[in-house]
Structures are given as C-alpha cells and as structure tokens.
C-alpha cells in the first residue's frame, strides 16, 4: 500500500478549518504554517474567505486543482464529506474526527444497522480511496516538515537533528503519546523520522505503516507503543524484524500475545522511556561482536551496579591479555582491580579534570584495543572540579568504530551533565542518566538483535 501521500503530500486540503484559535481544526493549519510546509495548502470553510492568510474556499468545486491529501476535521456529516471528496478525485483521506464508532450508526438508503465504518470501507473500495482514521491525532514527518496533527507541533523540534542520516519512527496506539513528540524531546535528543497515531485504524493499520517504514530510507529503527496486539501486527513484525529492529512497549494484559510478538522478532522494553533510550543505541552503535564488556568508573559502587545488571543479562567482564592488563595497572592507579577490568580509578591523585580526562582516555584506548572487549560502558560520576572534555571520545570512537561505546551519568552535577550530553549527542554516543542498569539492558538488546533476530 502506497502511504507516502499521507506523510509527504505535494498538496493538502483541510476540510473544516476553523478561525477559532482554541480548536483542533485551527491547529492543523497553524502547524503547517509554523513548520514551513513547502507544499500547497487548501482549506474549505463556507463561512470564511481566508484563515491565517490562506484563501478559504466555500466548496470543492472552487478548488483550482485536486489535492493529493484531504484532512477531515469536522465532526458531522463525515460520510457525505468523504464521498464528496472521493467523487472529486481525492485518493488519500485522513479522518481525524471522532465517529463514536461503538454506538453511532448511519441511516443511509434504508440500510439501518450498517456501521459507519462499513460505509466508509465500501466507498473506499468503490472510489479506489485510501484513508487513515477515524479518531486519530495525525502524523508528523520530521524530514519533510509535514504534519496532520491536531495538537501543536513546534518548528524547533523539527529542526533538531535535521541532518541526521538515520532516525527512529514511532507508531503509538495513544494519541497523547504520539502527539507529544510534536513538542517534547527526551533529555538526549533522539533523531525522529516519522510519528503516527492511527486512531481506530480500520482501513490502514499499524501493520501497513510498519511495511511502509521498512522501505523508508530515513527510518533505521521502528518504535511501537501498544495497547493491543493483533494477528496482522505480529505477522508484519515477523516479516520485517530481520530488516530493521522493531522495539515495542506493551501495556495490555495479554501476556501470550506479548510473547508471540517477541517470538516474531519484536524487541520488548521495560518501560516507555526505554523505547527512545534504546533507539539511541540502535541508531548510533555498531553491531556488537560478543557479550564481553569493559567498564570504566569512578567508584566501586557505580561499577557494582553495572556488574550486577550484567549478570542478570548474561553479559561478562572481558578478560584482558597480560600486556593490556599491566598497562591499566601501571598507568591508571586508584583502586583498579588486579585483572585490569573493570577500571576503578578512585581516588585520583589530583582533583582536576585533566587528570581524570587522562584516565578515561588511557583506559578506553587500552580496553578497546584488547580483542576480548566487545563494547565499553563509561560510568561518569563527577563534579565540576573533575569534569573533563568529553570530546576526547571523537578520536577514540574513530579508532574503534566496530565497538559500541555507551555512557551513563551517575550523580553528575547538572551543569556538567548538560555539557556531556550535548557533546555525546554530537558524537553519537548514547548517554543514560541516573540509571546505569539501562545502559546494560540496552547493550544486551542490541547484542540479542544482531546475534539472534538479524541472523534468522
């Protein structure tokens, strides 16, 4: 099913655009203007000549051309409007109005008892029309500056990571969670390609969108927030999971369906925020070659937190060769264990950032060059006096491009934490704040995907 007109149409018609600023139908138009949508915008409102500087037509017949996409934001006469649009020649329609599907029925041509959805599907087939909805919040396309969202989309959010080569796309069975990506961003920005909330999704389903995103060049990772897991969703994940990672968070009660989705190749996460945190790992980290990690940290406490989660996830501490072990013991100091890994450098002999910077640089290079180390976790527990320029990892990452580097901030002073997150984001190094266990779980999920699912 060709879905590109729903995400990047050359022209869009808003049916029922309102002059009232507090309405959803006003917000759709306002969003398109504020994010600098480059296509043609048409609106129909029989009671207005213009809205926000856009000419308002009073009927379809007045339009100078047939738009590629129509968005219905009025809440009445949906069937009539839908058929008029279809007859006019519009092939792609978004229904954002709530049809009260459970108890509202159409009384057309004496066909009492036939649901509105049955009527819509019949008309879609008759006129060869595709439609999304009803009861949907809409879509956001971060790449092409397009949205049908009925709640605010901020231009500065779309501008972030504008030149990112690969991104995550998010499908949510929740209008609020999908729409929030129009104004909200995680602490460490995750490059987003597309966001979609389908509402009831009777014609175009989540499974159809997954197949579309699999072919989307800008989407590297697919994220799902699920209330229900259907057979067609499981089937589409099974078909697509070996092509791109599909992470999901399920809030329903049917544990068997959740297990079925995992068996199909879906990657389950523990909570909502992990969808975006783990997306960073899949976007920015290379394929891990094994389960053996190196750890650098400022205290035995931070290291033990990481090591405990590693045991739970069946990950191991890498065993260094003698030369690298001796290099760590001789150059780092602190209370580093005699095996050289993990590196516990506390206490440093001087309370200055340059000293700590040298420790991280020497330890990282030594661990990563060891053949037994498959990836590196950095624990950063610093105050301003021992904060250092995280930019040292630009060179280190280039030296070892095939080994994941993941950082976690534990009780870091706020100002320094912001600087580290900014630099790490520029270097495409994932950072986890105040939950080092999440960094370990993320590495395990990455390893599991490439070791099990990708190889199927």
Commentary on this structure:
This protein has 16 helices and 20 strands. With 456 residues, the chain is an alpha/beta fold. It folds into 3 domains: 4-132, Rossmann fold (3-Layer(aba) Sandwich), CATH 3.40.50.720; 138-284, Rossmann fold (3-Layer(aba) Sandwich), CATH 3.40.50.261; 292-453, Succinyl-CoA synthetase domains (Rossmann fold, 3-Layer(aba) Sandwich), CATH 3.40.50.261. Helix 3 runs parallel beside helix 4 (116-127), helix 7 runs parallel beside helix 8 (231-240) and helix 11 (300-312) packs parallel to helix 16 (436-453). The longest helix is centred in the C-terminal third of the chain and has 18 residues, at 436-453. It is elongated, with a radius of gyration of 26 Å.
The largest beta-sheet arranges its strands as: 3-4-2-1-5-6-7
Q: Estimate percent helicity.
A: 25-40%
CATH architecture title of the largest domain: 3-Layer(aba) Sandwich
How is the CATH topology of the largest domain named?
A: Rossmann fold
Computed over alpha carbons, the radius of gyration is 26 Å
Number of contiguous helices: 16
The proportion of strand residues reads 15-25%
Question: What key phrases describe this protein's structure?
Answer:
456 residues; alpha/beta; Rossmann fold; 3 domains; seven-stranded mixed β-sheet; elongated
